[in-house]
Design brief:
Blueprint (H helix, E strand, L loop, with lengths): L4 E4 L9 H4 L2 H16 L3 H11 L3 E2 L4 E2 L4 E2 L7 E3 L4 E2 L4 E2 L2 E3 L3 E4 L2 E3 L4 E2 L4 E2 L4 E2 L4 E2 L4 E2 L8 E3 L4 E4 L1 H16 L2
Parallel strand pairs: 2-5, 3-6, 4-7, 5-10, 6-11, 7-12, 10-13, 11-14, 12-15, 14-16
Antiparallel strand pairs: 1-9, 8-9, 16-17
Helix pairs in contact: 2-3
C-alpha cells in the first residue's frame, strides 16, 4: 500500500482546486526549472537545479537522463539516494488529483537504484537500495531492496536473493571462459 495523505474536496473535481493546494507562482517556477533540466545534457547542472530550486534531495553521483519529469507541484517530496540512474522520460509523481480527492506522498528512491526508461513512479512509494526497475514500469507499490521489478502492473521478476545467485553464476561463467 502506498503511503499518501488524502484530502477530500467538495463540488468540482480536485484539479479545479489546484491553486488552493499549491501556489501558482511555485508551479510556474517549477515548470521553468524542470523544462530547463529536462533538456540539459549536463548531469551536475540538473542535480544543482533540482536541489537549489526544487528542494529535491538528490544524492551524489545520481544521474537523471534526458526528459525525466519530476513532480511539478511537490518536487520537495522526492528523495533520490546516491549513485542512482533515473532513465529517459521517467515520471516521478508526488501528487494525484482525482475526482473527489487529491493525494500527496513522499517518493523515496534508494542508493544505487536503476530505473529504466519511460517508467512512472506514483506518490507514496519507496524503492529500496540496489533495486532495478525495468523500462516502462508503473511503480505503484514499494520495491524491496535489491529486487528486479517490471511491468504494468509491476511484478517482482527477481528477488534480491535470486539476483545475487544470478550474479554469482554470471561471475563463475565469466571466470571459466
Amino acid at each position: 500500500m502506498r503511503k499518501t495523505e488524502r484530502y477530500h474536496v467538495q463540488d468540482k473535481n480536485s484539479l479545479w482546486h489546484i491553486y488552493k493546494t499549491v501556489p501558482f507562482w511555485k508551479v510556474a517556477k517549477n515548470f521553468i526549472v524542470i523544462q530547463a533540466a529536462r533538456y540539459t545534457p549536463f548531469i551536475p547542472m540538473k542535480n544543482w537545479l533540482y536541489r537549489t530550486f526544487l528542494h529535491m534531495k538528490v544524492g551524489n553521483h545520481t544521474a537523471f537522463a534526458l526528459m525525466v519529469m519530476p513532480d511539478i507541484m511537490f518536487p520537495e517530496k522526492i528523495t533520490v539516494g546516491t549513485n542512482s540512474v533515473i532513465g529517459y522520460n521517467t515520471t516521478i509523481l508526488a501528487h494525484e488529483y482525482l475526482i473527489k480527492e487529491y493525494r500527496l506522498g513522499q517518493v523515496t528512491i534508494g542508493d544505487q537504484v536503476m530505473i529504466g526508461a519511460n517508467s512512472t513512479i506514483l506518490p507514496g512509494v519507496t524503492i529500496g537500495d540496489g533495486a532495478i526497475i525495468s523500462a516502462g514500469t508503473l511503480v505503484h507499490k514499494d520495491v524491496p531492496p535489491g529486487c528486479f521489478v517490471g511491468g504494468n502492473p509491476m511484478k517482482v521478476i527477481y528477488t534480491q536473493e535470486e539476483m545475487q545467485k544470478r550474479q554469482q553464476e554470471d561471475h563463475f561463467f565469466q571466470n571459466s571462459i
